[in-house]
């Protein structure tokens, strides 16, 4: 799905907005200034058009999951290498995700968007990078009841 298929910015989470900014033409050193909301939304639209919302969602999960794995000292060298290959500009990732979070102040995410993000990001990232389960034998609730 492209952003043009979305009803508005509320159809993207803060993390997805950050990933859209990561692939947009936003200058890496950009610093938000009051009144720049339209410019930031243009970059978010641009990033969403480039890669689509499914990719933004996947990248957001990988970013959130990697942070969790790293905090728990579970990010193996293999995982870290694959993560750096997918997101080579760490400074841009941090700046984009910070700005994506800031956008929530002027346009919150819809309840459906928030619910879509309620997954175990660490387990998702582990599986994406290693092909194995972080919690072997654990039966995941696929109905979305948490």
Morphology call: globular
Number of helices: 7
**β-strand number:** 0
Outline the biggest β-sheet: none
Q: Quick gist of this model?
A:
With 146 residues, the chain is mostly helical. The protein has seven helices and no strands.
Would you mind describing this structure in some detail?
There is one protein chain. The protein has 146 residues and is mostly helical. The protein has helices at 14-22, 37-51, 53-71, 77-86, 90-102, 111-116, 121-130. Helix 1 (14-22) crosses helix 3 and helix 3 (53-71) crosses helix 7. It is globular and about 50 Å long.
Question: Which features would summarize this protein structure in a list?
Answer:
146 residues; mainly alpha; disordered N terminus
List the SSEs and their pairings.
Elements (H helix, E strand, L loop, with lengths): L13 H9 L14 H15 L1 H19 L5 H10 L3 H13 L8 H6 L4 H10 L16
Helix pairs in contact: 1-2, 1-3, 1-5, 3-7
